[in-house]
Structures are given as C-alpha cells and as structure tokens.
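User: For my dataset I need records formatted as: sequence, then structure tokens, nothing else. Please produce one.
Assistant:
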Amino acid sequence: MRDDLQYLDAVVTQLMLIPQGEKLAKALINNQNFIDWVTPQQVENVTQIQIKTGYGPQNLEGEPIDTDFYTYLKQVINPQIRNGIITDGSNQNDYDDRKIRWSGGDMAGYWQREEQSLILEVGPTTYPRYHQDCSRSKLEALKLMLKGLQTAQDPFVYFARALAVTVIPITAQGTVYIGERAGHIDRPGLLNFVAGLATFNQQIEQINFYQDAQRELNEEARIDLRLDESNTRLIGMAGDPFTSETDLVFVVNTNIDENHFNCDHWSEHLNFVRLSNKTEVENLLYEGILPGKKDKKEVVYASGFGLKYLIDDHF
C-alpha cells in the first residue's frame, strides 16, 4: 500500500504539469471506475467517425522505436505474424490479434469534432499488449505511467490503449439490459452491456466502429439490426484510468421486446438483467447492486459511463 501511494503521488505530481493532466490525476486519486474522455455533449449529433493515422505503443523495454502507424506494422507487428507469435485472421479459424490503438493528444488521445464527424487518431497494437494492460496490478500500471510521463510526457505511451465499442440496447419498452460476463472471456464476472474490441484494418478508411457495434449487438445479444443515424447515437468515449482501455459508447433503439432477453444461453454473458428506471440504474452505478439482488457487482468501465448517461439523459 505504501508503494502504491508513493507512485500515485509521483504520477499525480507529473500529471499536474501537463495539459489535461488534472482530469486523469483526479480519476487515479479517487480510484474511479471510468474516465469520460469525450462526453455526450461533445458528440451530440455526431453521425460519422473518421480516422487518421497515428502511432503504436512504445517498447516496454530496450531502446525507443519508431511507432509511426505503417512503420510499426512493418517492423513490429508483421514480423510477429511471420514468426507465429500472433495471427492476423487470414487463415480460417484464426483470431486477428491486430488491434486498434487510440493515439495522439495529451491525456486523451487525439480527437476533433468537425460538424457531424468525430475524427480520431489511431495506431496499431496487438491483443497480447492489450492483455498485458488488463493484467497489471494498479501499482505496476502506476509505475509504467510514471515512466511514460518522465520519458515522453505521456502516461500511456507504453500502453496498448486498445479501442473497443460498447453498445447499450434500448428495448421497445424503453428499458435496458446489462449482463454478467461469462467465465471464458475477458473480465469474467463483471457486469457489461454489449462490448468488444474494435476491428483492425491497415487500410484505415475501412475501420468502421459502427459496423463493430452492429456486429457485437448481433453476436452477444442476438439482435440483427442495421445501425444508422435513425436508431443509433454515439454518446462519447470512456476509458479505464489504470489500464488505458477506451471504448466508443453507443446507444441503440432496437425496438426489440423485453421478452427477447428471457433466455438462459448467451455467447458471452451468463444472463441479462433488466434496468427499468433511474433508481435501479443509480443503485447499480453507485452501489453495485442489481435490482432484486444483495451482492455487490463490479461494472466494466465503459458500462459505468453508459449507466451515468442513462441516469442523466434517458430515465
């Protein structure tokens, strides 16, 4: 505990010296579940997401390397594919270990609003690097943040900072359902809406977060719906202050009846639980208590951001 406080103090001191550092410092001090990098108000009426090339994560050990998007692909990721360390999904049944990283900016990655478009800067990373981020203790995460601040004035320069999507499906009755993650996937036992890592493509114009959201909604909640501006709203970007993971969060009016969720078998959730009013959502966000339950549950960071949105803007 003493080491945790020592490194937390050192990280906070460094953060206070750089733009937007105070926001992350506050999240770390308060041990916040999520940080709202981009708020619902900042992306109101956004209907498109555009991509520009950025940078991959820096070497965890050894000399610094060139992390430019295509250089990192050529010199880091492609050799790992050739050597069988990771796979790119090109062979049948292979998983694509290539992932998308949010890069640029100061504390937050680079983003810009232009009329109805959100512009993001992204770089390449890999699932193993993402998994390392998720597996570190908070002490180890703080040590790595401090290293990044001291070498590059960037607490996440050594993190994968993988981008994902989270989807909040709204039923025809206006209720929402959140589920407990199954044991065979990342973050088992935690409560989450529908979510998954974004799909990498080295042709950046082919990266499509709306398609990723549509796919996750179909795979995890068995809702086959074409997402467009008539039924889908981007409500912001939320991150985990300690792991660097960041999700684009969407709300989707599905027009699906509540009975759809009365099923015992889901691909990535043990079950789904109904949230029907502001009090139930507040109890879950602030107390970790589901309707009709007594045991506390932990909520995944982006779903916590989504719950806050439901309190403020839906119920």
